[in-house]
Amino acid sequence: MSTYVLSGSPHVHDKQDVNKIMWGVVYALIPALLVSIYFFGLPAFITTLIAVVSCVVFEYIIQRYIFKSSDVTIKDGSAVITGLLLAFNVPSSLPWWQMIIGSLVAIGVAKMTFGGLGKNPFNPALVGRVFMLISFPVEMTTWPKVAPLSTSLTDIVTGPTSLGIVKEGLMKGETLSQLMNNVPSYTDMFIGNIGGSLGEISALAIILGGIYMLYKKIITWHIPTSYILTVFIFTGILWLINPEKYADPIFHLLAGGLMLGAIFMATDMVTSPVNYKAQIIFGIGCGILTVLIRVWGAYPEGVSFAILIMNAVTPILNKTIKPKRFGGK
After folding, report:
1. Which of 90, 162, 203, 220 is least surrounded, with the fewest CB atoms within 10 Å of its CB?
2. Beta bridge partners of 144
3. Using CA atoms in the order 130, 292, 195, 239, what is the torsion angle rounded to 10 degrees?
4. Contact 294/252 with Cβ under 8 angstroms?
């Protein structure tokens, strides 16, 4: 007589696994990578390659020689994602050794210190990015101008980003009517023909990657939609109050790292809430903080800080906002 064994939950199985999800995100990042290489040339490719290889190597060394683990997870794609996203958050002209240090902080401090994939409370790429922003502020805010398919590694022409132009101009007392003449057209901002961090320039490429992840059910709409809508509504209200002081909502959607952050970084399933209601609150929190930092903060951009702050709130959201159990009252 056979014994009926009831194991612990979960009882529902899916064809998805960690490897498929992680490599699916990598595939979704390819359009943004290709656009960055087109507009920034060889430096963008080299910067990305250094970041990815560094993250994979650091994860291998830490697991193999510090943790003494035989179960090395570099093939699951998570270290590759960290490297890609870290590279996407820096200018293509960043010195190679700073990129390696940032990779070490992302993998060694933000990810492996807490036990590796699935245990890190903060997005590793964003921790590495913020570390580099604080440690190397000049190099991290020196933005190369676009030079399509350039193979030159020297004599890079630099200029401010759209957010930087607006932020600095308003601080000097200029009006938005004057400043917008120096900002790229919205068409260029949508395609990616602008200066900035190499992976955040093209809203179009990022949206294509987001559609792929939605189709593959790697992410849901809740965080990206609530995040982007919050920024749109919040900045729209400010713009209606004083259009000469506050930029319009379309500008805020296309400028900086909002699209990259909302679609690829805030949706990190390790550091974001589990259930849909909490995810919407998480996205709204990211949106409010992003606008607060952009408009009234010291930095022209606020996406990285906003997501990291909401990462810290995630355990509270998971604990306090729970879906009603099946059969529960």
Report:
1. 220
2. 158
3. 170
4. yes
Are 149 and 41 spatial neighbours (Cβ–Cβ below 8 Å)?
yes
| Preceding omega of 10 cis (within 30 degrees of 0) | yes
- CB burial string 238-248: b at 16+ within 10 A, e below: bbeeeeeebbb
Is the per-residue pLDDT at 29 higher than 70?
yes
Residue-level pLDDT at 317: 95
Q: Report the percentage of the chain scoring pLDDT > 90.
A: 69
The first and second tokens of residue 88, run together, are: 């996407």
Instruction: Spell out the long-range contacts of 104-107 with Cβ–Cβ below 8 A and sequence spacing 24 or more.
Output: 104/54, 104/58, 105/131, 105/132, 106/55, 106/82, 107/54, 107/55, 107/58, 107/59, 107/62, 107/79, 107/82
Tokens of 239: 């713009």
pTM: 0.91
* Contact call for residues 49 and 101 (beta carbons, < 8 A): no
Distance CA 297, CA 293 (A): 4
Query: For residue 201, which amino acid is it?
Result: I
pLDDT of residue 252: 95
Would you say 106 and 86 are in contact if contact means Cβ atoms under 8 Å apart?
A: yes
HEC-encoded secondary structure of the chain: CCCCCCCCCCCCCCCCCHHHHHHHHHHHHHHHHHHHHHHHCHHHHHHHHHHHHHHHHHHHHHHHHHCCCCCCCHHHCHHHHHHHHHHHCCCCCCCHHHHHHHHHHHHHHHHHHHCCCCCCCCCHHHHHHHHHHHHCHHHHCCCECCCCCCCCCCCCCECCCHHHHHHHHHHCCCCHHHHHHHCCCHHHHHHCCCCCCCCCCCHHHHHHHHHHHHHCCCCCCHHHHHHHHHHHHHHHHHHHHCCCCCCCHHHHHHCCCHHHHHHHHCCCCCCCCCCHHHHHHHHHHHHHHHHHHHHHCCCCCCHHHHHHHHHHHHHHHHHHCCCCCCCCC
